[in-house]
Amino acid sequence: MDLSPAMLDLCRSKIAKTDLPPERVAISRGDISSFALNRRFDLIIAPFRVLQNLETIAEVDGLLHCVHECLAPGGTCILNVFRPIYGPDELREKWLVPGERLNWEVQVEGGKVTCSDRRVRIDKERMVIYPDLVYRRYQGFALVEEVVMHLAMRCYYPETFEQVILDHGFEIVSRWGGYQGDQYGEGPELVLQFRTGGDFGGQSKS
Ligand SMILES: C[S@@+](CC[C@H](N)C(=O)[O-])C[C@H]1O[C@@H](n2cnc3c(N)ncnc32)[C@H](O)[C@@H]1O
After folding, report:
1. pLDDT recorded at residue 206
2. Which of 154, 150, 168, 136 lies closest to 61 in space, CA to CA?
3. Same domain for 137 and 47?
């Protein structure tokens, strides 16, 4: 599931190159904070930090409610977020800096593609950062295409991420700090695997 038709097309084209039988795959356009699939799953994942795109607690409530509805008995969900290099106070004070930083560049036939980021805004109460990712394609030295992706990333810390999951009536099964054996809270990533525990809760804050 994704909101973006372009991402779903990419998914379809990747699936077409596999030998997965069609009945094993269902693709749908939808909002992960509000969906009804009327099916239950043993495993639900939202990889690559998608949770952080949900800016409000109401949206996070919505996602976790839908996860509750869609988990089969004994099933688990895995969500991940990045671990900020700054603590909360430092992030509020230091994140917003002017200018653009080059993240990466790759050589392509006849030129190169670059990706830079601009830090546009921070909501210090909700701890949501708003970076723009700027992709540029050059033919030789001439800029021929520029695409800007506007992102919203709600930031979580090891304890606050766990608390959100626990507050929504789940129990945590496993925690990881990255994909190289890092301890939770020490690596670049915060990854939690959880299953339905007690009552489904919700938070009233924004
Ligand atoms: C970092 S990408 C991850 C894409 C994919 N999960 C993957 O692993 O390649 C984040 C994706 O989340 C999608 N997205 C953001 N907010 C969403 C929402 N509320 N509902 C559904 N998709 C959303 C975006 O369209 C984008 O494709």
Report:
1. 56
2. 168
3. no
Closest approach atom of ligand 1 to CA 33: 19
Is 36 among the domain residues?
yes
Residue 173: which of 199, 193, 200, 197 has the closest Cα? 193
As for ligand 1, residues whose beta carbon falls within 6 Å of it are: 1-4, 7, 31-33, 47-50, 53
Cross-strand bridge partners of residue 31: 34
User: Under 8 Å CB-to-CB from 19, ≥6 apart: which residues?
Assistant: none
Q: Which of 1, 3, 8, 189 to mutate to test the pocket of ligand 1 (most atoms within 8 A of CB)?
A: 3
Report pLDDT digits (tens) over 43-79. 999 999 999 999 999 999 999 999 999 999 999 999 9
Clarify whether residues 102 and 145 are in a common domain.
yes
